Amino acid sequence: MGALEGKVALVTGGSRGIGRAIAERFGRAGAVVGVGFARNQAAVDEVVARIRKDGGRAFPVQAELGRRGAAAELWAGFDAEVERHAGRGGVDVIVNNAAIGRSSDLESLTEDEFDELFAVNVRAPFFIVQQGLGRLRDGGRIVNVSSGAARLALPDIMAYGSTKGALDTFTLNLAKQLGPRGITVNSVAPGIVDTDTNAGWLRGNPEAEAYAASLSALGRVGQPEDIAGVVAFLASDDARWMTGRVVDVTGGAGL
Prior knowledge:
- By secondary structure, the protein is an alpha/beta fold.
- It has helices at 17-28, 41-53, 70-86, 111-132, 158-178, 196-202, 206-214, 224-235, and strands at residues 8-11, 32-37, 57-62, 91-96, 136-145, 184-190, 246-249.
- 44% of the residues lie in helices and 17% in strands.
- Keywords: Oxidoreductase.
């Protein structure tokens, strides 16, 4: 029996990168997984098919999270499918992973880019949780995917780092508010991870790969599965006494 057997999970941004690795890890651990995505139907279909091929259960849930009303749209899509796949409604684990992964520097950032960053990275998780509380079972889990950029001075992407700092504050307050229900809330903070977001400057560039690896005490570039393993732990019963924490998953960057 898997560590998440009988659980129902929603993973936003689950069609690629870290979100995909989390969704697939949850599926192997026995959870029924709602895989959130915005536009790429082919990508989410591939993830769902992979989970099912491995013996798991999953279904896609579409919503473009930068828009007002997107949280309600996401939950409506989830509600329409979950009972058919899980045999019951409600959710046990919410993973807020969907995000815009970079930002312009201070001199170049526009107000529109700033607003979009905070809409996707901060407002969307806030209202997904707000509107999910009636669905989230007591003893459940919320995991927010933050970033090492929230604790490191990285002026070139300070707006992005600011959104993740806000997400960590959200985590802290949620943990306090939801503790009486036995719900734990934690953040994970990755460093540089080999995903599509970083592919343009990282993959196939030996100098960039060497630089990224040098930032980690472990001497390599992070992989999506490195993050997914920690998220799976936080979603499991083994993490029942851990809440309100930001878990560094940068491979020891900045030590």
